[in-house]
Prior knowledge:
By secondary structure, the protein is an alpha/beta fold. The chain is built from 12 helices and 13 strands. It starts with a helix and ends in a 9-residue tail after the last helix. The protein has 2 domains: 2-173, 4-Layer Sandwich (Metallo-beta-lactamase, Chain A); 186-343, Rossmann fold (3-Layer(aba) Sandwich), CATH 3.40.50. Helices cover 35% and strands 17% of the residues. The protein binds zinc ion (ZN).
Amino acid sequence: WDGEKRNLMPFPFNPSEIDTVLLTHSHIDHSGLIPKLVKEGFKGEIFATKATVDLCDIMLLDSAHIQERDAEWESRKRIRSGKKAVKPIYNIADAAESLSYLKGINCDTLFKIAPDITVRLRDAGHIPGSAIVELWINEKGREVKIVFSGDLGHKGTPIVNAPAYIDEADYVLIESTYGNREHRGMRETIEEFAGAVEDTLKRGGNVIIPSFAVGRTQDILYILNQLSREKRLKNINVFIDSPLAKNATMVFLKHPECFDKETLNLIKKGQFIKGSPILKFTDTPEESMAINKITGGAVIIASSGMCEAGRIRHHLKHNLWREECSIIFTGFQAEGTLGRQVIEGAKTVKLF
Length: 352
Ligand SMILES: [Zn+2]
């Protein structure tokens, strides 16, 4: 809770003075404070791709729901020890209200957001709907082009297209999560992943994959599906234990413009998501708990991606201590998170 204090602080600007917001993609570390912005006086327009707008629908409501629940839990604890209750950054009603400010625009199309400012969104290849923002600003007859990369994918990212090439810019603001690291090739990474899954299942254990619900989970599904089709992995049962991941997957399917050729082909043939014999989405807490009874042969994907909250913690409780099971991390683990502790080899961790 303390880590979120910064999000509770007032913005260092007046939200009512902002005319336009350009949102690169729906991931919550980019979109998460939109309801707070609206709640505190923003009256302008928020532009993003159509897929991003649809994904924000589910993500902002989910975020508000988590905050309401966490604030309630924290307040109860505080009241017991004589302290003041806390409020969520925003509630479900705030999130719902903010959604009406989001406007979907097409990629690759010039769009004027002010008399002297033109914008164009280009595919960032990060998750469906993700965009690079190109901005042309005309000031006193001089034109300056600024490019905001947003989060970037790379050529081998499953499901989505490779990022668009930007020909020119006067200024570039670029994300640098992995700026200091050379990534291995996708095929090598998939091989290592397949090997880890195979070894674990042979030992009679389960594979637990903590994963961000939007983007990474679907990438993993794609790869597991492919490995199963190629008979590289046999008899696997994949559980996607995240209602948000399920809802996001359904939104993806409504936006074929975001998919690469391979994915479109698979969907057409009924071999991906719908019709896949190995994938099972679980909705209710009861269905989720039923997975806990499975002791071997399951690949369980749940969020949160850094193991800080959510259903993943229950799966860790049932599997982390068992020698025959594996945890496969497929995403960035920030300092101070449970995921980071596990990666760094902690001998004991506190789950609940
Ligand atoms: Zn992102």
